[in-house]
């Protein structure tokens, strides 16, 4: 067994964010402090050969870097599905899946760097670290590498959102009693995150093209079914899902300034003593309450855009744009409702991304389908 530990800049951010889930695997150094309630949820992304310390992560030393497998360049590969066949991104779990919705905006060269699909549930008693490692053994053929991470705090979206909390620093002197496992595939582009109260499927860019949401979603369902079956076989209860979460992380390099691709940022010029001044740097955050008719589900879109530095080989300045949709029902969700919320979140994110970004940026990203 190889236990290859790593942590990214954004995970440090997410650990102190009052509403962040930490589901993604980012690798940014932030220029500006933005409200941490909008930190990308589920983010774990970073380049396999890089690591940076977040500007707000004082007191938390990064763990050792993980090298590529046997020194080889990782190649994209689909993990296996629940029935043991090699996945092509099509669902084998029995969930009624749909293809890409009609009239949904599409881009040939989207700036997307990572997608995370997550479900949250009350802590499962008996789902210990040893049990989670047993689950890893079940899927080890497809996810041969494991890392231990600090678990993500359980917090549900409320109709009245919690106020933004100030950043707090803490010195970690001992490992936590509970853990979150990262189960990582050979090519480093897919991973599963699992803890006693959360299950997450990630795709992150590692040189290969974005496989599109349907493939990531279907793989989520396949692996989540494997986890449910493992719990049942182990004599543990199945998760009672209370919240779904879908995260898109985009990276826009400095060739496209934030005011050139983000509509709200394009209106930030000021006039002083008769002279017009553009911003030297800016960050933008927003939160949208999006009702789900005839339900008690609380659903929000969180958007955050801020300057960052990407450190793969040479430092590259750009902007990280994250869009996160969380939908919560404290009473629990049936499987069909979970599927609807995940698919609905994807539509919200894509349409919001298109609404918030400029037509000139759409040309750069080669928008190919009109909404």
Number of strands: 16
Query: From the structure provided, what is the oligomeric state, counting identical versus distinct chains?
Result: single chain
| Cα distance spanning the termini | 48 Å
Low-confidence runs of at least 5 consecutive residues: 2-20, 26-41, 45-77, 85-94
Beta percentage is: 25-35%
How does this structure look, described?
The N terminus is likely disordered. The chain is 19% helix and 26% strand. Strand 8 and strand 9 form a beta hairpin. It contains six helices and 16 strands. 42% of the residues are buried. The strands form four sheets. Strands 2, 5, 6, 7, 8, 9, 10, 13, 14 and 15 form a ten-stranded antiparallel sheet that branches.
Give a quick set of tags describing it.
ten-stranded antiparallel sheet; two-stranded parallel ribbon; disordered N terminus; alpha+beta; 6 helices; globular; 19% helix
Short note summarizing the structure:
With 371 residues, the chain is α+β, with helices and mostly antiparallel strands. The protein contains six helices and 16 strands. The model is unreliable at 2-20, 26-41, 45-77 and 85-94 (pLDDT under 50).
How are the elements arranged and paired?
Layout: H1 9-15, E1 24-25, E2 28-30, E3 43-44, E4 106-107, E5 112-120, H2 129-139, E6 145-149, E7 180-184, E8 190-195, E9 198-204, H3 213-233, E10 243-253, H4 258-261, E11 270-272, E12 275-277, E13 284-289, E14 298-312, E15 314-328, H5 335-356, H6 359-364, E16 367-369
Parallel strand pairs: 1-3
Antiparallel strand pairs: 2-14, 4-16, 5-9, 5-10, 6-7, 7-8, 8-9, 10-15, 11-12, 13-14, 14-15
């Amino acid at each position: 067994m190889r236990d290859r530990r790593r942590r990214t800049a954004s995970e440090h951010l997410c650990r102190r964010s009052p509403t962040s889930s930490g589901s993604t695997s980012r690798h940014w150094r932030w220029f500006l402090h933005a409200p941490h309630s909008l930190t990308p949820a589920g983010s774990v992304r970073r380049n396999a050969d890089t690591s940076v310390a977040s500007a707000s992560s004082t007191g938390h030393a990064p763990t050792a870097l993980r090298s590529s497998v046997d020194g080889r360049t990782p190649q994209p590969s689909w993990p296996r599905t629940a029935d043991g066949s090699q996945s092509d991104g099509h669902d084998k779990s029995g969930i009624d899946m749909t293809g890409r919705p009609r009239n949904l905006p599409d881009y040939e060269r989207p700036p997307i760097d990572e997608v995370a699909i997550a479900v949250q549930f009350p802590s499962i008693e008996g789902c210990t670290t040893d049990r989670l490692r047993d689950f890893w053994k079940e899927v080890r053929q497809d996810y041969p590498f494991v890392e231990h991470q600090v678990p993500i705090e359980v917090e549900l979206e409320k109709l009245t959102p919690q106020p933004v909390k100030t950043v707090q620093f803490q010195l970690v002197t001992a490992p936590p009693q509970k853990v979150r496992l990262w189960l990582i595939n050979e090519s480093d582009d897919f991973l599963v995150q699992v803890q006693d109260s959360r299950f997450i499927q990630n795709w992150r860019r590692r040189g290969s093209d974005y496989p599109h949401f349907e493939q990531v979603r279907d793989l989520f369902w396949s692996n989540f079914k494997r986890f449910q079956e493992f719990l049942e076989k182990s004599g543990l209860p199945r998760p009672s899902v209370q919240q779904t979460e879908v995260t898109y992380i985009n990276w826009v390099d400095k060739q496209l300034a934030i005011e050139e691709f983000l509509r709200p940022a394009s209106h930030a010029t000021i006039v002083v003593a008769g002279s017009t001044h553009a911003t030297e740097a800016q960050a933008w955050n927003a939160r949208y309450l999006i009702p789900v008719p005839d339900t008690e589900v609380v659903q929000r879109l969180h958007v955050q855009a801020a300057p960052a530095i990407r450190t793969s080989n040479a430092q590259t300045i750009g902007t990280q744009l994250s869009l996160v949709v969380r939908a919560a029902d404290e009473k629990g969700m049936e499987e069909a409702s979970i599927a609807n919320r995940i698919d609905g979140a994807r539509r919200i994110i894509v349409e919001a991304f298109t609404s918030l970004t400029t037509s000139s940026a759409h040309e750069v990203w080669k928008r190919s389908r009109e909404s």
